Amino acid sequence: MAEYICSFNKDTLIIKPPKKSPVLLRMVLLVLAMVCGVYICSICIKQSNTHTNTNFDLEVIERPCYNYGIDKSQIPYLHYPKPETFSRAECTCSPVRLFVIISMQRSGSGWFETLLNSHINVSSNGEIFSIKGRRDNVSSILNTLDRVYNLDWFSSASKNHCSAAVGFKWMLNQGLMEHHNEIVEYFNSRGVSLIFLFRRNLLRRMVSVLANSYDRYAKLLNGTHKSHVHSREEAETLSRYKPTINSTSLIDDFKEMELTSAKALEHFHSTRHIILYYEDLIKNLTKLIEVQEFLRLPVMKLTSRQVKIHNGPLSEHIKNWDDVNRTLQGTAYESFLDADY
After folding, report:
1. What is the number of alpha carbons within 13 Å of residue 232 lying toward its C-beta?
2. What are the beta bridge partners of residue 167?
3. What is the distance, to the nearest Å, from the Cα of residue 64 to the centroid of all Cα atoms in its chain?
4. What pLDDT band is residue 91 in, cutting at 50, 70 and 90?
5. Which tens digits make up the pLDDT trace of 289-298?
6. Mean of the pLDDT values across residues 81-100?
7. Is the dihedral of CA 176, 177, 178, 180 positive or negative?
8. What is the model's pLDDT at position 291?
9. Which of 227, 234, 198 shows the shortest CA–CA distance to 211?
10. Dihedral (C-alpha) 204, 208, 211, 217: value to the nearest 10 degrees?
11. I want to staple 297 with a disulfide (CB 3.0 to 4.6 A). Which of 95, 171, 187, 292 is the partner?
12. pLDDT tens across 120-147, in order?
């Protein structure tokens, strides 16, 4: 050890430690780094296993649709359907208004519906309760209504994605009157708007009903029954049939029709509704603007390809005209004899 002893002076001795090998230090650091690395990796693997085995129930909260510029009184009538059968995509937050056309057969409801469906934003799905199974009971009726108003009802009139108004036709004799209490409650809770469409001239309606009933079996148009036509030739063919009207019960029949309409208005008076008459629509097409405003739609020109079947005086369309004329003369229904449009 003599070589490690240095003398600075006579009185002081300094002993220098031996130099450590640089290779040894590097080996020690490498081992420590490896141990730390293994430890860190084991911790990460444990955490990964913990996350893999843990089940999280994640609930996606969608931002509700709301139009801040809308009149607050209209909010109950605005809906944002979420169909089960398709996605509304960019129209998800486009509001939809719900409506129903309430009428009686041969009162112009088919023609009126084609007018509504000519609007780019309207889907009116026809006479869906003409099929008895859909109106067997209240449950089947409400389930059908849910499908229609949720945009899950498909017909040739469906414009589902960006419809601004969706509805259908409902005749008074298709379960509507029998279950009116539950249906009124449904309409009010869902904010459904009602469009009543009646016909003032009940005699013309009767002629149309009888002629249409006859054609169901006669099938005058090349063996095909058509309730509505799109050409003047087809209309003339169907109008050649002249029904015979029971003049004995005629006035009572008129009273029963009027009573049915009055009961419907009474049953559904608490709903949001509008009352229209076929004759008014025929004579004044600006009435269609009122309908569009009632449904809060952008006003457009509405068109229909349907052609009216029975034109001209009723004397040309009733086989026993003289009997009918004598029966109604001097009564409250005398005006039906002369009316034309």
Report:
1. 1
2. 124
3. 19
4. confident
5. 999 999 999 9
6. 88
7. positive
8. 97
9. 227
10. -160
11. 292
12. 999 999 999 999 999 999 999 999 999 9
Task: Extract the runs of DSSP E, i.e. beta strands, from the chain.
Answer: 5-7, 13-15, 97-103, 122-124, 165-167, 169-171, 192-198, 272-277
pLDDT tens digit sequence for 292-317: 999 999 999 999 999 999 999 999 99
CA distances from residue 230 to 18, 108, 234, 306 in whole angstroms, order as listed: 115, 14, 7, 5
**Is the C-alpha dihedral spanning 143, 78, 119, 281 positive or negative?**
positive
What pLDDT is attached to residue 325?
97
Evaluate whether 318 touches 324 at the Cβ level (below 8 Å).
yes
Q: 261-290 burial, b if ≥16 CB within 10 A, otherwise e?
A: beebeebbeebebeebbbbebeeeeeebee
Q: Structure tokens of 67?
A: 């139009």
Residue with tokens 């016909």: 199
User: How many of the other CB atoms lie within 10 Å of CB of 183?
Assistant: 23
